[in-house]
Amino acid sequence: KRSAHWARVEALQAEAKTSNSQIEALMAENALLKQAHEDRLGDIASLVLERDTSLAAAHQAVTEREQRISHMQDDLREAQQKRSAHWARVEALMAENARLKQAQDDRLGEIATLTLERDTSRADVHRMAAELEHRIRCLQDDLREAQESRDAHQAQIEGLKEDLGQSRSEVDALLASASWRVTRPLRSVKQALRGRE
User: What are the backbone dihedrals phi and psi of residue 109, each rounded to the nearest 5 degrees, phi first?
Assistant: First the structure.
């Protein structure tokens, strides 16, 4: 009985080892499945993010396209308004051109009249210019004579200034002389006597 018991124990141990091996294999497979599941979730998240990014980009592109269409419509309306204004301006310019042409014809008539008057008065202008040139030459001669007279007067003034300076020097020398200082009391007495008279 004991032998059978040990045999049964050994069989149970062998079965337990087999079970442990199976459990380890199942745990390893579970870990692989879990990692694959996580990787798949990551791929799904990446795809979702990429999809959302693509949708956002598509929405942005649609918005920009709508804005461009709106701007193009505004530009088209503005161009139509400008074209209408341009044609109105062209018509106004044509009317203005006709008026200017008439004014030009009138002006040409006036110019012809003025040209005739200019030709008529040109001789008078030349005559007046000759008279003015003669007067200018006369004035230049008078100016030259006046400058010569001024130079002569200036020379006289310089000579008088030199004479005045020399006279002042002589007076200063006389006042500073010893004889003038010595005779000062006599001059004082003389002035006093004149004052009494």
Answer: -65, -45
Q: Given the structure tokens 């100016």, which residue do they identify?
A: 143
Give residue-wise pLDDT tens across range 91-112: 888 888 889 889 888 888 888 8
| pTM metric for this prediction | 0.30
Residue type, position 194, single letter: R
User: What is the three-class DSSP state of 183?
Assistant: coil
Q: How many CA atoms lie within 13 A of 95 on its CB side?
A: 5
Q: Rounded to an integer, what distance in angstroms lies between the CA atom of residue 141 and that of residue 149? A: 12
What single-letter amino acid sits at 111? I
N-terminal to C-terminal alpha carbon distance within the chain: 195
* Contacting residues for 174 by C-beta, under 8 A, at least 6 apart: 180
d(CA 160, CA 192): 37
Contact between 174 and 180 (Cβ < 8 Å): yes
Question: CB under 8 Å to 180, separation ≥6 — which residues?
Answer: 174
Angle at 156 between CA 153 and CA 161, to 5 degrees: 125
